[in-house]
Amino acid sequence: MHEAVRAFSSKLESSTIEIDGQKMIQVSFATQEGRKRKNAGWPKKRPEYCKFALYKENKDINDVINIICKYLKMSTHLFSFAGSKDKRAITVQEVTVKKVFATRLSQLNKVLRGIKLGNFSYVKTPLSLGDLSGNHFIVVLRNVTGEDGAMNRAMCSLRDVGFINYFGMQRFGNSLVATHQVGRAILLRQWNEAIDLILKPRSEEDERDKWRVNWKQTKDARSTLEMLPSNKRHSAEKELLLGILKNSDNPIYALSYIPRTTRMMYVHSYQSKIWNAMATKRIQEYGLKPVVGDLALDGDSNKNAYVVTDSDLNELKIEDIVLPQPGYNIIYPTHSSKALELLTYRIN
């Protein structure tokens, strides 16, 4: 309960008091002395964030953070990372957490399974979604069948022509309900629709989905929680059901129980779905060469985009062309603005 108060607002502090033999939790605005006590154990000259490398095997990043938080008895809001890696893979990525000692994190290696923490350092700022320049993959193809000539042509095309770098299944999920559908509902402020999509049965015949069927039929959070399988004990669905149990009349409140990084992933998934559609349309209409109206990055900063004109065409290759994800205060290719508007409404 004290952790929930701290997660709700850093301006609040709580304490356990006893009145007439009954223990109660007292919540008040944090005083100057209270803030000093809170930070007393953290060295003044040490940066506030501990950065570490997270190694995981066949696990979702949000599930891993939930597991770590259960052991540390702390809020998921204190953790941040630059993006999600594939669930069905062996992955390594950096994570930051606020005011947790490296020694405390390191001790978790004794109890975690398929998860390792290491390469600890202290930094001034936390990671945020998008704070990465790319990924490095080692891909293994197994049980490949086909003619040698066809496989050689495919590999040569991959080497010489390349491929469209689509957002893959880890961004959208591989179940009946794709994460971008939840993101679309959130952007449209269809809160109850978002909740039902997250808890919707993936297969009504599957025994493991009985809890989802129960929610669909009863909308009873308590009985659905009691039916949760062991692999959902640390999940967004469990947090959502707890939020509904606390306040069934406020869907926004219930959704806020899901870790912020997961909520953002839903929205980013919808952005990525639109990006994939726009990338396909761009290649279909204009091929593998720069055209007027494309976007390219400024050569000096490599950050600011500009619209390609006739005078730029001789200096650019298709590798120089960029396509932004839709969002606020974004510059778009001038030849695709109407298509983007149509796709945004049609994708579901």
Describe this structure in words.
This protein is of the alpha+beta class. 39% of the residues lie in helices and 16% in strands. It contains 14 helices and nine strands. The strands form three sheets. It has a four-stranded antiparallel beta sheet with strand order 4-5-3-6. A three-stranded antiparallel beta sheet has the order 8-7-9, with no helix packed on it. Strands 1-2 form a two-stranded antiparallel sheet. Helix 7 runs antiparallel to helix 8. 19% of the residues are buried. The model has no long low-confidence stretch (mean pLDDT 86).
What are the main properties of this structure?
single chain, 348 residues, alpha+beta, 4-stranded antiparallel β-sheet, 3-stranded antiparallel β-sheet, globular
SSE topology sketch:
Elements: H1 2-8, E1 12-19, E2 22-29, H2 32-38, E3 49-57, H3 61-72, E4 79-81, E5 90-98, H4 102-106, E6 115-123, H5 148-160, H6 169-172, H7 179-187, H8 191-199, H9 210-218, H10 221-226, H11 236-246, H12 251-256, H13 260-286, E7 295-297, E8 305-307, E9 321-322, H14 337-346
Antiparallel strand pairs: 1-2, 3-5, 3-6, 4-5, 7-8, 7-9
Helix pairs in contact: 7-8, 7-13
